[in-house]
Amino acid sequence: xxxxxxxxxxxSFGTPxxxxxxxxxxxxxxxxxxxxYRWERSVDGxxxxxxxxxxxxxxxxxVPVGSTYGLRVQVVTRAGFxxxxxxxxxxxxxxxxPIIEAVSSDLGEWExxxxxxxxxHPCNRGAVVTVRAWLxxxxxxxxxxxxxxxxxxxxxxxxxxxxxxxxxxTYILRIEASDQYGSTAQKTAxxxxxxxxxxxxxxxxxxxxxxxxxxxxxxxxYPPGTAVVLQASCDPYGPLPVxxxxxAGEVHQFTAVPAGTPGIxxxxxxxxxxxxxxxxxxxxxxxxx
Length: 289
Prior knowledge:
With 289 residues, the chain is mostly beta strands.
């Protein structure tokens, strides 16, 4: 008696996007010699047309132009062939670029790190959106951040560490978003970095309260008449933080009694006289808990 060749028990694929490859799988045919799988496709309900034959129950198809997409697969062996297994008709979608919700304009002139936020809204079903944030200007492109976006989540760009060595001039913030379907979007905003004065602050959580701090600013040679204020706090998260004046490049012993979560904080203000600019290349903070 000739054993019947069973059709694959299942046939599945993801969302068909026009012009993009689509991975297709079906259930294995079992222990037959020289098993092959014959794949056929129907677009918009038309007659099925052959796509190809594989030795494994996996196939990759390039989705054509159309409204609906259907497949069927048949097991072929030396003993004969099976009935077809059908997928049913699925809608063919056109890839849509992600939406970047962010300011896209001239943001004006800034002496301090500019605040900038963005939110990503994927538009393709099951899309995973990769985001790259760039700072362009001065003959260089700087990658500020790269990450996978959570849909609808607002992200804040922190330009603090890039701001200090940034020469005065006009710059472009560029947010790029792309998904696995090849859909891309971009949004840009411009701003002008002024260097007449520097005013910044930063705090950091620690496991223990610091007792001493060494704050260094590079370079430290300012024009005559420059007003320089360097302050540090061993209690930046307390209800009433005490900011103590420190001398650049010298160890400072804290005198305040912390009342909040252990941490370190520093504030820097540099204001040169008229006609001069304040630009520093870096800050080094060392502390002893």
